[in-house]
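Entry type: protein chain
Record version: 2
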Amino acid sequence: MILRRLSKSIRKQDWFAVLIEFVVVVVGIFAGLQANDWAQEHQDRRQEHAALERLFLEADGAHQLLNRFVQQTLRMNQMRRNAVQFADSDAPVPKDELPLKTGINTLAMFPPVIPITVAYDELKSSGQMQLIRSAELRGQIAEFHANLAFLNQLQRGFADGANRFQDVYQKHVIWDYNPEATTSDILLSTYNWKSLRSDESFIFAVIGLLRNQLVAEQGLIELRDQAKSLCEVLGEMVSRSCTSS
């Protein structure tokens, strides 16, 4: 209809009418584009909020998981410290050897930290992380996940390097089957503390493993604090509170 009027005005050389029709067409196109932009912006903001909600839940869960890891690691590392200190001394063997055995037995354990990261993985693989307008927040999220991957890689490296300890360790321990066992006590161990203490390669190995455990402990603490900070930032954006711990 507008084009018909515009062509008629041109034939009549009614340039004022042509100008008016042209302005109407331009304004109509501009208004349509603005409406499309507004609709797209509205949709992007809804998708951004949904993404932030999912990332908040994952950050909250990661913080809780890491906090449990830290608390357990602190307890175990104190036990490991005591065991290594005892092994590198002439102190008499206590009546209850279990804490010392536990400290030695767990020196080579470096379990991975695997929080749920489904939302982050999906957003990253689909390119939808760009829906989050804050470049600083995107960087903070990426940094946390990079540090998580680095810590697990470090843990794997420490675990792979514990083979030498196992070879030396087994020479000083006698294992017996416990027929009355239900779970973890299926193996009964008898330590030859005298030979163990005189084995320099064993002492060197346990000190090295304890050092690696303390390095991993510091990494866990830093990652836990980073997860807490990320949870709080995301929580502010979606009006949610992180789970207290």
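Comment: The radius of gyration is 32 Å.
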